[in-house]
C-alpha cells in the first residue's frame, strides 16, 4: 500500500486497485480510518478527534492531489507524494 504522506505521526495511504468510493486510509498509532476523498467524511474506523480534524484539514488542502492519486493507483500506475500538513 503506497504511503502518500506522513505528518505529525499520521500516515496517509492508498491501496492499488482499491474499491469505490474513492478514499484514503489514515493510520495513527493503533488507530486507523478511511476517509472519502469527495466528502472528506470518515467512512470506517476510529481516530482521536484531534487527529481526525488534522486529517480532514490536510485532505481539504490537497483534495485535487488525492483525486489524481486515486485515478493513478486504480490503474496500478505511479502515484505522487503529497506535502504534509505543517
Strand arrangement, major sheet: 1-2-3-4-5
Number of strands: 5
Give the count of structural domains. 1
The SS-based structural class is: alpha+beta
State the end-to-end CA separation. 24 Å
Strand content: 25-35%
Largest sheet: 5 strands, antiparallel
Number of helices: 2
Shape: globular
Q: Mean of the pLDDT scores? A: 94
Uncertain segments = none
Characteristics of this structure?
86 residues, single chain, alpha+beta, five-stranded antiparallel beta sheet, globular
Topology:
Blueprint: E1 3-7, E2 10-13, E3 23-28, E4 31-36, E5 42-46, H1 49-61, H2 63-74
Description:
- The protein has one domain.
- It has a 5-stranded antiparallel beta sheet with strand order 1-2-3-4-5, covered by helices on one side.
- The longest helix has 13 residues, at 49-61.
- The chain is globular, with a radius of gyration of 12 Å.
- It is α+β, with helices and mostly antiparallel strands and 86 residues long.
- The protein is built from 2 helices and 5 strands.
- Helices cover 29% and strands 30% of the residues.
- The termini are far apart.
- It has helices spanning 49-61, 63-74; strands at residues 3-7, 10-13, 23-28, 31-36, 42-46.
Amino acid at each position: 500500500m503506497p504511503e502518500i504522506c506522513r505528518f505529525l505521526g499520521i500516515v496517509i495511504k492508498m491501496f492499488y486497485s482499491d474499491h469505490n468510493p474513492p478514499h484514503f486510509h489514515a493510520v495513527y498509532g493503533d488507530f486507523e480510518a478511511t476517509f472519502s476523498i469527495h466528502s472528506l467524511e470518515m467512512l470506517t474506523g476510529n481516530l482521536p478527534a484531534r487527529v481526525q480534524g488534522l486529517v480532514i484539514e490536510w485532505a481539504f488542502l490537497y483534495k485535487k492531489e488525492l483525486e489524481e492519486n486515486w485515478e493513478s493507483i486504480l490503474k496500478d500506475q505511479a502515484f505522487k507524494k503529497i506535502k504534509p500538513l505543517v
